[in-house]
Design goal:
The protein has nine helices and no strands. By secondary structure, it is mainly alpha-helical. Bound molecules: fe (ii) ion.
Length: 196
């Protein structure tokens, strides 16, 4: 899979269109989560590509919230990003933003995990450790069922995402906790560098 862009160029591109530290943090987190999934699911050779789709998936959200997933192709094409990567980015808005369906397993993972990382992040913040390090699936499940908790994270999208992958919801929750745990320190380091 060809991204058409290097990791360094992609990081610059994300910064070009995003000023909010939370948006940078979210991009880096989804990148780390996607890299973990690529490895976990046997796509080792495409780890960088999976990561870049994660890093760039919300590229247009800060400046063009009304055109989210619609503006992204233009911004990405201009930067030389491949059509394959653009399809991945756009398809994460399937059903609520666009009618481009996630097809590749990488796209289905992005669709399912994107929204869920928001929920896990919010749940981690509530813990004494402020971390996913000691987070159990059972406690995340309680947060998932509590509709008032992180109400902006759509449970419907997360459920639909698990279904598209053919996974039980618990499997998606468990794997995504592991994925976030695995990249937490690296994302923290990169945010420190970003803030410096
Ligand atoms: Fe996102």
């Amino acid at each position: 899979m060809d991204a058409g862009i290097s990791r360094a160029e992609a990081a610059e591109l994300l910064k070009k269109y995003n000023r909010e530290p939370f948006h940078i943090l979210h991009g880096l987190t989804v990148e780390g989560v996607m890299r973990w999934y690529a490895k976990e699911l046997g796509y080792d050779g495409d780890q960088e590509f999976w990561g870049l789709v994660g890093l760039l998936h919300d590229i247009d959200f800060e400046l063009y919230p009304e055109e989210h997933c619609l503006k992204a192709p233009e911004l990405l094409r201009e930067a030389g990003v491949s059509e394959e990567l653009i399809h991945g980015v756009v398809s994460h808005g399937y059903g609520h933003r666009v009618e481009v369906r996630p097809e590749h397993e990488m796209e289905k993972v992005l669709y399912a995990a994107d929204e869920l990382t928001g929920l896990i992040w919010a749940a981690a913040k509530m813990r004494p450790s402020k971390s996913t390090r000691d987070m159990e699936v059972s406690s995340l499940k309680k947060k998932f069922k509590d509709k008032k908790f992180a109400a902006g994270c759509s449970r419907d999208i997360i459920r639909a995402g698990a279904e598209q992958l053919g996974w039980e919801l618990d499997t998606l929750l468990e794997r995504t906790i592991l994925a976030m745990r695995a990249c937490e320190d690296e994302v923290g380091r990169q945010m420190e560098a970003y803030n410096a």
